[in-house]
Design goal:
transmembrane helix
Length: 416
């Protein structure tokens, strides 16, 4: 897009918990010449956030806009090259901003872990975004950049080594950190949507529900996100047990969509899943079983409660509230390490490592989202020319990888 807009980047939702963390990160990481604005519903709260950031942010703009005010969002999108948004659940509040950015040709990055939202965005705005050149990039936090870029880097390495296409590929997640109130609220929004329209459950259940071309979906048999097994079944180097990873159902769809957006370059027999490490102790099998069963039970109970007003009120009382989060000390003590084990059609084996410090849902996510926004704003000449409703790897690929490495994250691929 022509460089005639008032801002390079607008952070929408800047007064929320993750929004403030992202603003702090942008303050440290953005170029001095960057034209940044903070956006949200309350001018007083935006002013307070900017004041708390200190004198360096004194020149940042403030934009008042509500997530339900289409005219205000249209005006916001027209003023900037990029919008970064933390305002969720996106299924409830996100689509008007997608519409505004698709119309204006404005690049966009969010933190959604909601396949229903992405599917609706694809159906409603993908073609318009392609026409205007807008990159609408979903899932630019811990969900799902480590997953998406890890497999993308594996693919790039197999091309360099000429070792064939990817086949069986498994990500093993290890982390220390909490689940945010926003993530839980997103889950509730999807449960409520399915309760209102049971047909939407197919989007959640089908591994290729975000596919760009249903006729090209690989026929590799059943792929399940449920797990309970010894880690050594994935790779002999691993010890202990693995269980179901709570975000696997979303992340795997993002990775498969990337494959489709790039022309199915990962391979016609690419099979992908994600699991979570349950440790090596004697009680690890019980922990793994409890994790797997607890996730299923929790999702089932939440779905049932979401069907009635009384159940939703009960969930309101017992679940963490959106916009809340852990202390600075707790955020800094967190970490994550994602190892992805891959095989190719020639028999070659690889392991990709994507790791970082800080609570993955907060501290690390602020880095991932912030760098995504900066990448979209300043690295357009280094990115694929794709536009539309995109994934992080398909939209930014090597450019985002380079930025995250420079920001201190470890992203490597080794041949086993």
């Amino acid at each position: 897009m022509a460089d005639t807009r008032e801002y390079d980047l607008v952070l929408f939702g800047a007064t929320g918990f993750v929004g403030k963390l992202t603003a702090q990160y942008l303050l440290a990481a953005a170029p001095e010449s960057a034209r940044i604005a903070l956006a949200g519903r309350s001018l007083d709260k935006l002013t307070s956030v900017r004041d708390d950031l200190g004198p360096t942010a004194a020149g940042w703009g403030l934009v008042v806009a509500d997530s339900t005010d289409q005219a205000a969002l249209d005006a916001l999108a027209a003023r900037t090259k990029v919008v970064v948004t933390t305002v969720g659940p996106y299924l409830r509040y996100g689509m008007p901003l997608v519409a505004a950015c698709a119309k204006a040709g404005t690049h966009y990055a969010d933190l959604t872990g909601e396949p229903l939202f992405i599917r609706d965005a694809i159906d409603a705005y993908h073609e318009q975004a392609v026409a205007t050149g807008a990159k609408i990039v979903n899932s630019c936090g811990y969900d799902s950049i480590p997953s998406d870029l890890s497999v993308y880097r594996l693919y790039r390495r197999t091309v360099e080594d000429n070792t064939g296409e990817l086949v069986d590929t498994t990500l093993v997640a290890s982390l220390k950190g909490g689940v945010s109130g926003g993530t839980i609220d997103s889950g509730r929004a999807m449960m409520e949507a399915i309760a209102a329209d049971p047909a939407k459950g197919k989007v959640m259940a089908h591994p290729y529900s975000l596919s760009p071309d249903k006729t090209m979906d690989p026929d590799v048999g059943r792929q399940s996100d449920q797990a309970l097994s010894r880690a050594s079944a994935i790779d002999p180097s691993l010890d202990g047990w693995v269980s179901t990873f709570v975000m696997a159902a979303h992340n795997t769809k993002i990775v498969r969509r990337t494959n489709g957006l790039l022309g199915w370059v990962y391979g016609k027999n690419f099979r992908y899943r994600e699991v979570m490490s349950a440790g090596k102790s004697r009680v690890a099998p019980l922990v793994a079983a409890g994790m797997a069963g607890g996730i299923v039970a929790g999702m089932t109970a939440g779905a049932l409660l979401s069907r009635a007003a009384a159940g939703r009120k009960l969930l309101d009382r017992v679940l963490p509230k959106p916009g809340t989060g852990p202390s600075e000390e707790a955020r800094k003590s967190g970490w994550f390490s994602m190892k992805t084990f891959a095989h190719t059609t020639s028999g070659a084996k690889y392991v990709a490592t994507f790791s970082g410090s800080g609570d993955p849902g907060y501290q690390a996510t602020a880095v991932l989202l912030g760098e995504s926004g900066l990448c979209l704003a300043f690295d357009t000449d280094k990115q694929p020319e794709l536009a539309g409703i995109l994934t992080p790897a398909a939209a930014m690929g090597d450019a985002l990888t380079d930025r995250l490495r420079a920001a201190g994250m470890t992203i490597t691929v080794d041949r086993a």
